[in-house]
Design goal:
The protein has about 450 residues and is an alpha+beta fold. It folds into 2 domains: about 30-40 and about 300-455, Acid Proteases (Cathepsin D, subunit A, domain 1); about 60-285, Cathepsin D, subunit A, domain 1 (Beta Barrel), CATH 2.40.70. The protein is built from 11 helices and 31 strands. The strands form 5 sheets. Strands 4-5-12-6-11-10 form a 6-stranded mixed barrel. The chain has a 4-stranded antiparallel sheet with strand order 18-17-24-25. The two termini are about 40 Å apart. Bound molecules: 2-acetamido-2-deoxy-beta-D-glucopyranose (5 copies). The site of one 2-acetamido-2-deoxy-beta-D-glucopyranose has 7 residues, from strand 7.
Length: about 450
């Protein structure tokens, strides 16, 4: 009986294939997914909402560094296996950083050398999304990767003292900028920057990432241009010794919560509010906005706490096909959850992932399962299908915020015929949950630090 009803509902859904979502009142909800739409095209598509680019300034186009919208040469295209294994090393280092503060109280430095060698072979993933900013006078364009899990903004600088990796943009030369200045030693910004030290009266910074990649150099200030805005005396790392597999990018834009991040330094101008939309596939274009005008729609907002290091929110539940899964709230509340732009696949506490995976599998029995792929263990072989019907997946946050994920946030394609459930479980129930970038894709995500809220609205890019 129930099955027949369901089948006829699916037929109704199929009549409306132009809608990607079939919302039928309170009844089970499914997505009919065109498998070709899950994978990236060879040609870059323009932003979905061009009006937004005209009305909300500054607006930076944000694209996947590995796709056809990227200006970077595909010199170093990572395989999917590498992307997922780098993702695990980022997650390990987040868990390490967080447990170091919660366990011992004050340890906040970079990973110790022993942790670094334990992960050797993997390169730390600083994130996939790039934006262009201008630096110096006259302004030079730099391609930076955006990271809400990092604070210091940095770029490689001339003269490279020991190492500079290969980047596509010309390396920034401070001697060619009339507005460049060194940050002086023993100043508050110098005391607040990562791993600081002094060379004479000049402040030095150092940032080390999970795999042993690092950037070290002068802590500097110069004019930063986010067209049409100009930010004077913006502090950033002028890296004269940089090592790691950063893949042609010129550096990083740090959107973390601490005092030296871009967000904190520009608080007078942008009130510590920013928003972004992460594109669903690498051939589509997202955006990054700053300022209180960046929340253009009525977003659902959930409480958020900035720091230490990350943005914390409270996940409260999951649903599959509009049915709430039986997961005790303490499964989520005990380890806590962060939202991160640089983690690809959402990590759930083990019990939550177990419940999600079994409900998802129950609703996918019409498809043939395939072998696990890297960190993904619920994979399907869709050979012979053009469209597949998958259950909707809902993620609930504190304050009754419920996100109906985009299909790209549910299925992660690994080939033309195979795709996997785009979630993974932590192995330790005490490890923090991480709401990753695949699940955030297509939402306008607003970080409103003064209000202590984060907002989500669907279909933004
Ligand atoms: C910044 O400091 C370095 C090292 O002390 C020095 O070589 C350089 O000339 C300084 N630049 C400026 C603009 O003061
Ligand atoms: C700080 O950076 C230096 C490089 O200048 C590095 O040798 C050192 O290991 C870093 N400090 C920590 C605690 O990792
Ligand atoms: C698959 O879906 C697309 C649009 O979503 C539609 O144009 C096409 O006809 C569908 N194919 C089948 C076999 O249902
Ligand atoms: C959440 O929604 C439920 C039912 O939809 C309602 O009873 C509850 O009061 C709501 N809670 C908040 C905090 O809005
Ligand atoms: C169509 C289908 O398989 N629906 C099932 C989805 O999973 C729930 C349990 O999680 C079942 O109750 C449904 O019958």
């Amino acid at each position: 009986m129930a099955n027949n009803l369901l089948i006829s509902l699916l037929q109704i859904c199929l009549l409306f294939l132009s809608f990607s979502t079939c919302a039928l009142g309170n009844l089970p909800k499914f997505h009919v997914v065109d498998l070709h739409a899950l994978t990236s095209k060879n040609v870059c598509s323009p932003p979905k909402d061009m009006e937004r680019f005209k009305s909300v300034k500054p607006a930076l186009k944000m694209v996947d560094r590995h796709g056809p919208c990227s200006t970077l040469q595909p010199a170093e295209k990572l395989s999917l296996k590498q992307i997922l294994s780098n993702d695990q090393s980022r997650v390990d280092s987040i868990h390490h950083r967080v447990s170091a503060i919660s366990g011992k109280g004050t340890t906040s430095g970079p990973l110790s050398p022993s942790q670094i060698t334990a992960q050797s072979g993997n390169s730390y993933s600083v994130g996939n999304y790039i934006v262009h900013v201008g630096i110096g006078t006259p302004s030079k364009t730099l391609t930076l990767v955006l990271d809400t899990g990092s604070d210091v903004t940095w770029t490689q600088c001339k003269p490279c003292q020991r190492f500079c990796y290969t980047q596509q943009d010309p390396i920034f030369d401070p001697s060619q900028s009339s507005t460049y200045m060194n940050v002086t030693c023993n100043s508050t910004p110098c005391n607040d920057v990562n791993n600081n030290s002094c060379s004479g009266s000049t402040c030095l910074y150092g940032v080390q990432y999970g795999d042993g990649s690092y950037t070290v150099g002068y802590y500097a200030e110069d004019t930063l241009t986010l067209t049409p805005d100009v930010i004077q005396n913006f502090r950033f790392g002028c890296g004269q010794n940089n090592k790691g597999i950063f893949g042609e990018i010129a550096g990083l834009l740090g959107l973390g919560p601490s005092s030296e991040s871009f967000v904190s330094q520009t608080s007078d101008k942008y009130q510590r509010v920013f928003s972004y939309c992460l594109p669903p596939v690498s051939s589509s274009t997202g955006y990054l906005n700053f300022g209180s005008n960046s929340d253009t729609s009525n977003t659902n907002r959930t409480p958020m706490k900035p720091g230490p290091f990350y943005y914390y929110l409270t996940m409260t539940g999951l649903s599959v096909a509009d049915k709430t899964l039986p997961i005790s709230p303490t499964v989520f509340s005990k380890p806590g959850t962060i939202i991160d732009s640089g983690t690809v696949i959402t990590r759930l506490p083990p019990d939550a992932y177990q419940a999600l995976k079994s409900a998802f599998r129950e609703n996918m029995t019409q498809y043939k399962m395939a072998q696990s792929y890297s960190i993904l263990d619920t994979c399907y072989d869709f050979t012979g299908f053009d469209n597949v019907t998958i259950p909707s997946v809902g993620v609930q946050f504190e304050n009754n915020v419920s996100l109906d994920l985009d299909s790209n946030g549910i299925l992660y394609p690994i080939s033309n015929t195979q795709a996997c459930l785009a979630f993974a479980g932590n192995s330790d129930p005490n490890d923090m949950g991480i709401f990753g970038n695949v699940q955030q894709s297509t939402f306008n995500v607003v970080y409103d630090i003064p209000k202590g809220e984060i907002g989500f609205s669907p279909d933004a890019c």
